[in-house]
């Protein structure tokens, strides 16, 4: 009998056969990129395709990625938030596409559940992270996520979103969503749900705790630029959905008698 002191750790179950493309958008993240790639490499060296999209970097991030054996796609000018996901997806050859960020090293054991979920039939495997929800005032980004999921008829998703890494998608999902839509993550999620794909939160990685160094980008007018962008992305996604389903989405007018309104 094994005692507590001699009990062996269970080895992680091997990933199934098939290629996995890991897409890492990067902009001036040489301090963390090596750690990110090394963790990704531990997933399964023989079947992992690492695609680093260098989005307007000036710090040599691309050279670091090349030295570590990644496929590097370089864009001289910064193309905007999340565009690297679309570019990476266009070049991916895998059956599973896993998305992480170049500034957030995540242990391989925390990445495996997303790949396994897709291998078992999930089309979009999401991080269960909800964002800060216990404060007195709900952050606009968190609120936007809740509102969109409710409008899509998936209120149980709450603040779970493709804006948050890590997450993974199937080749089927990529073809249904389209690589271009991945540059607007809420739109990609909306299309996936609308087209009947299996979208599920599968594992929790507390990305807020891991990446505390990423601060909000506040401009001279005191505006959170990234937060404002993400809220705008959700509005774009909601607009797309209403174009497909009509101004009330799938919700009925029920028993409202408009004639009584003065």
Q: Pick out the low-confidence regions.
A: none
> What's the tally of helices?
9
Major sheet? 7 strands, mixed
Helix/strand order, N-terminal first: EHEHEHEHEHEHHEHH
Query: What portion of the residues fall into strands of 2 or more residues?
Result: 5-15%
**Main sheet: strand order:** 3-2-1-4-6-5-7
Estimate the global geometry from the Cα principal axes.
globular
Structural class: alpha/beta
Please characterize this protein's 3D structure.
With 262 residues, the chain is α/β, with parallel strands linked by helices. It has 9 helices and 7 strands. The chain has a 7-stranded mixed beta sheet, with helices on both faces. Helix 7 (185-194) runs parallel beside helix 9. The radius of gyration is 20 Å and the shape is globular.
Topology (SSEs and partners):
Blueprint: E1 20-26, H1 30-41, E2 48-55, H2 61-67, E3 71-75, H3 83-91, E4 96-99, H4 108-119, E5 124-127, H5 140-151, E6 167-170, H6 171-177, H7 185-194, E7 199-203, H8 207-210, H9 225-245
Parallel strand pairs: 1-2, 1-4, 2-3, 5-7
Antiparallel strand pairs: 4-6, 5-6
Helix pairs in contact: 5-9, 7-9
């Amino acid at each position: 009998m094994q005692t507590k002191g001699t009990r062996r750790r269970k080895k992680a179950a091997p990933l199934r056969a098939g290629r996995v493309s890991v897409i890492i958008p990067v902009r001036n993240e040489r301090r963390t990129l090596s750690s990110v790639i090394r963790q990704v490499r531990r997933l399964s060296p023989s079947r992992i395709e690492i695609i680093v999209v260098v989005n307007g970097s000036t710090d040599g991030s691309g050279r670091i990625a090349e030295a570590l054996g990644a496929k590097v796609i370089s864009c001289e000018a910064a193309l905007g938030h999340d565009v690297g996901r679309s570019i990476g997806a266009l070049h991916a050859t895998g059956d599973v596409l896993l998305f992480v960020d170049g500034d957030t090293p995540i242990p391989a054991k925390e990445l495996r559940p997303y790949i396994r979920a897709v291998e078992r039939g999930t089309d979009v495997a999401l991080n269960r992270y909800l964002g800060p929800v216990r404060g007195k005032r709900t952050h606009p980004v968190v609120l936007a996520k809740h509102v969109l999921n409710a409008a899509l008829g998936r209120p149980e998703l709450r603040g779970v979103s493709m804006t948050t890494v890590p997450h993974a998608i199937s080749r089927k999902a990529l073809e249904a969503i389209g690589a271009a839509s991945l540059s607007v993550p809420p739109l990609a999620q909306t299309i996936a749900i609308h087209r009947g794909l299996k979208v599920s939160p599968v594992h929790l990685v507390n990305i807020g705790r891991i990446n505390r160094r990423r601060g909000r980008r506040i401009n001279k007018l005191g505006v959170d630029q990234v937060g404002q962008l993400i809220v705008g992305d959700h509005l774009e996604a909601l607009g797309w959905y209403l174009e497909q389903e009509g101004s009330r989405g799938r919700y009925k007018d029920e028993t409202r008698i408009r004639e009584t309104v003065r």
